Amino acid sequence: MSDEQNPAPEAGPRPRRLTYAAALAALEGLALVAGGIWILVLGVTGDPDDRQQAITGGVTLMVLALLPLLAARGLLARRSWSRGPAVITQILALPVAYNLLQADSMAIPAGIALAVVAVAALVLLVNAETTRALGIRGPGNASQ
């Protein structure tokens, strides 16, 4: 990409909104890692219905954690590419939160927490200050 399509981020201190968005993405990534380890340990040490499925599920969650963790690192480094994976992570978190809210168990508080984090992160990521800090220009502003 040329510099015109992807300008350099603004100089100066990193906006708090950008730092908060990175923290929320990192929090989600760490939660996925913790969930993956939990499922993996239960699959290996417990008595699951299908041990192979439990191990695969745990490993899958840990691999999926890479997306928000890399996005968080990119946001902290003010890389414009990082907003896309961070937004995608939040959009994917919303249906998961909805499904957790439909459960009749202790998953309901987790669903509420996930929904709050996902919506807050989305608001922070689409904020104009965050967009400027990442050097992202809106449509029709490429020539400015």
TrEMBL record:
Keyword annotations of the record: Membrane, Transmembrane, Transmembrane helix
Protein name (record): Integral membrane protein
Organism field: Streptomyces fuscus
Annotated transmembrane regions: 20-41, 53-72, 84-101, 107-128
